[in-house]
Here is the input.
Amino acid sequence: MLLSLDRSDANEAASLSFEVIAAVAEREGIDPVELEPPEYEALYDVVNPEALDSLFAPRQNGSDRSTGRVEFPFCGYDVVVTSDGEVELSEQTRTQQ
Here is the structure.
């Protein structure tokens, strides 16, 4: 999986970066811990996991951030992460080089 995540609070909801890993692993029919190089692309090679996790996290004062979405290619899928925590995958339709 090769994510640099702070797991100090195990009771917190799963991070968005882990949700991306879990969604791809589910689609591939493997355990999330098996989704690592060299067989699979590392998430940090396409997006900064910490930045993804903090992008839609509440502000320091507790207020919500704006709505939005982030799209990126990962492990043969087009990934869409939305501000409400949804992770959507679709097969890539174009060739990535």
